[in-house]
Amino acid sequence: MTISEIDVDTKAMELSPNSSSDSSSSKDAITEEKFDQEYVTYNVGLIPSRYYEVLGARPKDVPAFQKLAITTLGWLRSTKKFVSSVSYITWRQLLSRSLHSMYFRKKNFYDVNVLSRKVDNPDQRMTQDVDKLCDTLGKVFTKIIIAPFIIGYYSYQAFANTGWYGPVGILVLFLVSTVVNKAIMSPTVQLVFDQEKREGDFR
């Protein structure tokens, strides 16, 4: 059996129900915290424009409001960071266990390292690549979940204030940015891959 024949379906991961439940709870908690943070940040951002004169007059309750806003945002950011870190650890544990259970099943270890060279430095891949994957996933997960709602809301606001010029302009800017980013990042990604491969060969 070669590495290409290893079944990586989630049904073969042999994960316990408690582990799956913990991972699901972590994702739900991250999403909820992200929504709370976006809601508070958005409403705080509206206050200066709507109550500029009131805030400029420095009423007695401004210091208390500032303290409350800073405390609330700080708590939300800290909670989000904590839940993201816990989720990262949980995901890495689950993925590492699954990969190692397949790696050491029967003679897969020998096939991958001796008979097949399709995967370079498999030991390094199961440590560094899994670490980077879970870390990146923990950082972008909430952004991916909440992005459609944010895009839809602000597209509606842009349409309500500028007509169809606003949403179309945003879409054009996004497409242009994507093309430019793709052209710049593609060579860089290949260089990073080659660098990590050579580091593994050196070890």
UniProtKB/TrEMBL annotation:
Residues 1-29 are annotated as: Disordered. It comes from the Eukaryota. Residues 16-26 have a biased composition (Low complexity). GO terms for molecular function: ABC-type transporter activity; ATP binding; long-chain fatty acid transmembrane transporter activity. The chain crosses the membrane at residues 140-156, 162-180. GO terms for cellular component: peroxisomal membrane. InterPro entries: ABC1_TM_dom, ABC1_TM_sf, ABC_transporter_sub-D. Residues 75-203 form the ABC transmembrane type-1 domain. Pfam families: ABC_membrane_2 (PF06472). GO terms for biological process: fatty acid beta-oxidation; long-chain fatty acid import into peroxisome; peroxisome organization; very long-chain fatty acid catabolic process. Signal peptide: none annotated. Keywords: Membrane, Transmembrane, Transmembrane helix, Transport. The keyword Transmembrane helix applies. This is ABC transmembrane type-1 domain-containing protein.
